[in-house]
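Narrative summary of target 7.
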Amino acid sequence: MIFRPKLVRDRIPEIIRKNGTPCEFVTMDDTEYCKRLCDKMREELEEFSLEPSVEEAADIYEVFLAMLEAWGYSLADVIQEADWKRSERGGFRGKILLKKIGNECNL
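Modeled conformation, tokenized:
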């Protein structure tokens, strides 16, 4: 199996070393970090979609918090915007699939 570099939680190198396995890591610059955060979110979302669990949801949440911090937003900002959007446009609990608008083909 080929190992591909990936963003890991802060204590992972320490945990790997404690298990007696050598590892190599670097600290990324902001540009690389933001790219890797997006990659990590895709990875975590895929894992959750394949096997939904609180553990996988917690991983998504942790990556999301890191993304907010990296881009200079707060969780409170996001909650406020989500509340506004929900009041204006609704949420997703209705399970509504938009299949066609006017003469447009299926989406």
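The longest helix spans residues 30-50.
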